[in-house]
Amino acid sequence: MSETGLPGNLRVRPNLADLMGLLAIMAGAAVIATAGRHMLVPIPASETGTIHLSPAWLPAYAVRTTLRMFAALAASLVFTFTYAVWAAKSRRAAQVLIPLLDILQSVPILGFLTFTVVFFLGLFPGRMMGAELAAIFTIFTSQAWNMAFAMYQALRTVPPDLEEAARCFGLTPWQRFWRLEVPFAIPSLVWNTMISMSGGWFMVVYSETITVGSTDIALPGIGSYVGVAIEQRNIGAIFYAIIAMLAVITIYDQLLFRPLVAWSARFSTDDGATVAAPDPWVLTLLRRTHLLRQFCLRLGDTMTRIGWLAIGPRPSQPVRAIIPSRLMDGAWGMALAVCALTIGWKTWTYGSSHYSVAQVLHVVMLGGITLLRVMGTVIVASLVWVPLGIWLGLSPRRARHAQMAAQFMAAFPANLFFPLVVIGIVHWHLNSNIWLTPLMLLGTQWYILFNIVAGASSYPGDLLEAARNFHVRGWLWWRRIMLPGIMPYFITGALTASGGAWNAAIATEVASWGDTTLSAQGLGAYIAHATVAGATDRVGLGMAIMAGFVLLLNRVLWRPLANYAARHYTFD
Amino acid sequence: MMQPNTAAPTTAKTGTELVRIVNCRQAYHKESATDLVVLDGVNLSIRSGEIVGLLGRSGSGKSTLLRIIAGLLPPTSGEVIWKGRKLEGPADGISMVFQSFALFPWLTVQKNVELGLEAQGVAPAEREKLAEDAIHLIGLGGYENAYPKELSGGMRQRVGLARALVVRPDLLLMDEPFSALDVLTAENLRTDLVELWAEKKLPIQSILLVTHNIEEAVLMCDRILIFSSNPGRVAYELQVPFEHPRNREDMAFRQFVDRIYALMTRRAPVVSEADMADPEMRHVQITADAVALPALPINTIVGMMETLAADPLHGRADLPLLASRLQLELDDLFPLGESLQLLGFAELEDGDILLTPEGLRFVQSEHDTRKTILRASMLHNLPMVRTIRAVLDERPNHRASAERFRDELEDSMSPDYARQTLQTLIGWARYAELFDFDEEADQLFLEDETE
User: Fold this and answer.
1) Taking CB atoms and an 8 Å cutoff, what residues of chain A touch B122?
2) pLDDT band for position B449 (cuts 50, 70, 90)
3) Residue A320 has what pLDDT?
């Protein structure tokens, strides 16, 4: 124990923990500075030549990849704190922003690359910065929507009694936002950020090797390292990359997310019914340090002070609307209708001049094939993970370990494993239409397991006892007792997994090993080929159709199912 | 179709033996050296034709015993003889009614009731008829197609009862079946159940009822087993001499209830009956280091003392009367009384509670003096408080990890109780300004007087 300081003594002496902390911070700063400098250099003449397959380069690549990740995370946070807040605060804005977010969420992220690369390269001609920004934007699109939704939901569900208390104390909107609404949103925001990061790792690996039409850039990073390894048929390098990624994810999990989740638990509004997990070691270390702890406390104080700034009117001051709100509503509705009509008309004229009916039908058919593939993998994965997840979840000890493993596996970018499968397909001359399919769910199947384990471990013990007391066994047990009980969890898991699978379709329906390229029939392959060819109109069509499929599936299948399950299969 | 049982309910000794528990012991393995013993040396038997009550405080292991009898939980040692055979696994012919009802929310009333028959492989048509009969018997006719969430608590427990009865068990186990219901509903259900039993309309041979409500036990049971805690065992066995229906206001009834209160308050906290018989053991208990404390905020204790000191009571009260007056159940009242006794503010004797002079002085004092009195009392009566204070005084920074004291408490109680006990101690110590607690760092500390 480092309890050597005198009580009440304000002079703080640095201790050993401080030294370790400071060293870590300095090392981190140096790494970030070096990596940052590289971003501003011009694009080198031979792009792929700059990626070295020697494992000695991997740590540096890993740092670059991680930095991109965090840059995107920062951007997502900014987006969350503006877009979602605006949508929550303004009823009229929400009418546009929320459906838009819903659509954005279902658009395949990888498809964005075509448009963003061209845009960002144009913004910084001849500099790596443009390509970097394009990659970061891709990651951003995989994180932001989900986080913004979480924030919006939290802001809309602030308990009314807390809201009233805030009004009673005369908090200004600014104060109320920082003192009440943000703290209330933190648990769900942290949780969704964690989920987003998992998706982000997948995208960061994919987005580093950007091939759009004639532009072919490899940003130094783990993703491009794997890309080059595939090109040169180097299995060893792929294993190195997997190990490096394991290290990165372990470090990021331990240093960032464990402490963050532990910290966010204190903002939880339910009354400590959940048993407090032991503090992660990083948090404990931070508490033991003297200087760093003081620094953090000061930082916290400053933040608190900013939160207390009296910006905006007090609730006691009457806000008088200049224009009657009915009139504003009407005008707003008109404006929306005009905008919608214009956009509809533009889309129609563009669509009818660029695409034939046969072409659209063909793409829809391809979408149908990919749909079959997505549903097929979800069903197969469910058959495997549901029984296993229940077995794991019914024992608290097994459940804890399984949860952690599933969380970790979900964060691991599955695309690093793709080459291994592709090698197998090439080697045994397998049908790529069938064997490329499992790749879609490689990364997202863990959500099924994760949710099933959560469902089984929260299954009420007395109901299980009642079932045993009445000798309910075998198929009857599954049908009457277990499956209904975990249904809401299963639907959440399957929904997340299938959403991820659509996204992954673009990355998995086309795969290569050296100069052998495997391709499956489907909408993902269609978009991937169009991207490589730089055919913006075909990419646009493919994306629109895919987004349509995802939206339709959510509306017709998942949402009604989730509602039904929420009504019938929940414990009071 | 329900077949009435033939045994006479009140003449208990005549029935055949259904279940016998022989020397049952249930212990949970702990990481530290000693195991936590929940049940020890439990012997009992249940015959056909009787309602047996298992009366005890929560945490005395009576629900655990119920699960052992049902075959849901194997005992650590000892055995359960069910109809002459050693029981292994969930028993045939034993049905359970749960405190939480344990109805499947996705099944209708009908389907919930049919569940046990379905598991037995009864044909659908017969299943339906039997379930309907049971639903009607228990007074839920017309609700067959409702889902449990549409029903009130009392109705839900009726479904639980019908579900247990429909398989025609020999023994019905009821785990605090009325404690999740409000007073009126519980009374209504109790009366109905006793009536059906007395009219021999229930297709069962006997009932084992676990409860912590003394009046409920006297009202319903033919025989009452009083359970002691830590470890749980049968301390007393009483035959209830009344015919059904029983009248709560009857003088003899009231005296019987008083007698049970007296029996249950006759011992020091957490001392089991077996220990009581041995004067040396009793001595050990008094000097023992740690006593598990209930989660009792100090205001409840103060409130209780003020009530006791105030007008109609004047420092002495009959526990059953006090319980009904304050609407407290056994589970609330006893911990409260025992805590007062532990602090030297009150005495429990013969089912009465009376304030000590110290307790009276506390009530009559101003806020600051109360703090001083409580401080002195805690230091004098609670060894753990003395230890904590000594450690904190000794340390140069007057801080110490709470974990260490929790570990120490765990030598004599389960981790959950240790956590709760320390939390209660902290609550009282804060009121008495003895020491304070830093939750973030999980440390106990002394308020710095010089600051």
Assistant:
1) none
2) low
3) 64
The Cα A285–Cα A21 span in angstroms is 9
A469, A478, A479, A570: best to mutate for the B interface, most B CBs within 10 A: A469
Distance between CA atoms of A393 and A554, rounded to whole angstroms? 27
Label residue B9 by pLDDT band (50, 70, 90).
Answer: very low
Cβ contact (<8 Å) for B105 and A569?
yes
pLDDT of B267 > 60? The answer is no
Question: Which of A373, A357, A371 has the alpha carbon at shortest distance from A541?
Answer: A357
Q: What per-residue confidence (pLDDT) applies to B269? A: 43
Within 8 A of B149 by CB-CB distance, chain A residues are 572
Residue labelled with tokens 């009821």? B174
Alpha-carbon dihedral sign for residues A487, A490, A496, A502: negative
Distances (CA, A) of B268 to A192, B46, B259, B265, B353: 53, 29, 17, 8, 13
Closest partner CB to A470 (pick from B105, B116, B440): B116
Q: Does A174 have pLDDT greater than 50?
A: yes
Of B335, B116, B439, B344, nearest to A476 by C-alpha is B116
Using the beta-carbon criterion (under 8 Å), do B163 and A470 form an inter-chain contact? yes
Q: What is the set of domains in chain B, with CATH numbers?
A: 15-263 (3.40.50.300), 296-443 (1.10.10)
- Residue in chain B nearest A462 by alpha carbon: B102
CA–CA distances in Å: residue B413 to residues B30, B34, B228 = 10, 10, 16
Q: What is the pTM of this model?
A: 0.77
Instruction: Please say whether the beta carbons of B81 and A545 come within 8 A.
Output: no
Kindly state the tokens that stand for A146. 């989900």
Q: What is the mean pLDDT of chain A?
A: 81
CB burial class (10 A; 0-12, 13-18, 19+) of residue A433?
Answer: middle
Residue matched to tokens 């569940």: B115
pLDDT band, residue B290 (cuts 50/70/90): low
Instruction: Give tens-digit pLDDT for A293-323.
Output: 777 778 778 877 887 777 777 776 666 666 7
**Residues of B with CB below 8 A from A469's CB?**
70, 72, 90, 94-96
Nearest to residue B265, comparing CAs of B214, B210, B209, B311? Answer: B214
Q: CA A395, CA A459: separation in Å to the nearest integer?
A: 11
CB contact under 8 A, B104 and A468: no
- Judge: B106–A8 Cβ closer than 8 Å, yes or no: no
Ramachandran region, residue B41 (left: φ > 0; alpha: ψ -120 to 50; beta: rest)? left
pLDDT (average), residues B157-183: 92
B159 has a pLDDT exceeding 70: yes
Element (H, E) at B42: strand B36-47
Each residue of A70-93: pLDDT tens digit?
A: 889 899 999 999 999 998 888 888
pLDDT per position as a tens digit, A441-495? 887 788 888 889 888 988 998 999 999 999 998 999 999 999 999 999 999 889 8
Per the model's pLDDT, the better-predicted residue between B13 and B238 turns out to be B238
Instruction: Pick A484's closest partner by Cβ from B96, B100, B106.
Output: B106
Interface ipTM > 0.90: no
A514 closest CA partner among A222, A217, A238, A228: A228
Interface check B364 vs A, CB under 8 A: no
Tokens of B185: 């509903």
The rounded distance, in Å, linking the Cα atoms of B51 and B240 is: 10
Q: Which residue is listed with tokens 């009465």?
A: B352
- Contact between chains at A6 and B115 (C-beta distance less than 8 A): no
pLDDT at residue A17 greater than cutoff 70? no
Q: Is B397's Cβ below 8 Å from some Cβ in A?
A: yes
Please choose, from the candidates A403, A383, A379, the residue with its C-alpha nearest in 3D space to the C-alpha of residue A456: A403
